[in-house]
Design a protein that fits this description.
Blueprint lengths: L1 H100 L3 H9 L2 H10 L4 H5 L1 H13 L8 H18 L1
């Protein structure tokens, strides 16, 4: 039995020695892999940091350009809306004139008076035409007073012509 135990102990010693050697080799390989990974991480960090900075700069520029484009588009839309409002004023003026022609002076005067504030605001919006547009207030007041008193003989042609002239000039400026 002694011999068998001696053989088993010898085999166990050889096996333990073999496992220790394998462990050392694996440890060396793991250290090499770990070192390589650290180098790769450093290289990636060195490469990606400038790229991230450039991407942030590009993002900032495109955001700014996009905002400027949106602002310009919104401004154009607002200007077009104001022009459309002027066209609507011509329509309202025509309605007032129709009521005047039908002998409905009070209703016509009320409709005509409703155009004063939008015409004044259009003068504020289109500064080059401010004097023309805001200069219509006296004419509108006179027409409204006459129509209310029953004198519906005067048509708002001067007001309509002024609005149409301003619209024509605005359309020419747009081209």
């Amino acid at each position: 039995m002694n011999t068998i135990s001696h053989i088993l102990l010898s085999m166990l010693l050889v096996l333990v020695t073999y496992l220790v050697v394998q462990n050392q080799q694996l440890r060396t390989e793991l250290e090499a892999i770990s070192t390589t990974q650290h180098r790769v991480v450093e290289v990636l960090a060195e490469t990606l940091t400038p790229l991230a900075t450039k991407i942030d700069a590009i993002n900032t520029v495109t955001s700014k350009i996009g905002k400027e484009a949106d602002d310009a588009t919104n401004q154009q839309l607002a200007t077009l809306q104001k022009r459309l409002d002027l066209y609507k004023l011509v329509g309202t003026l025509n309605q007032a004139n129709q009521l005047r022609a039908e002998g409905k002076g009070a209703e016509a005067a009320e409709k005509l008076t409703s155009t004063k504030k939008p015409i004044w605001q259009a003068g504020e919006t289109f500064a080059a035409h401010k004097a023309k547009l805001q200069g219509l207030m006296g004419t509108l007041d006179k027409l409204s007073a006459a129509w209310k008193s029953g004198d519906t003989s005067t048509a708002p042609d001067a007001v309509r012509k002024t609005l149409e002239a301003v619209l024509g000039e605005l359309n020419n400026e747009q081209k």
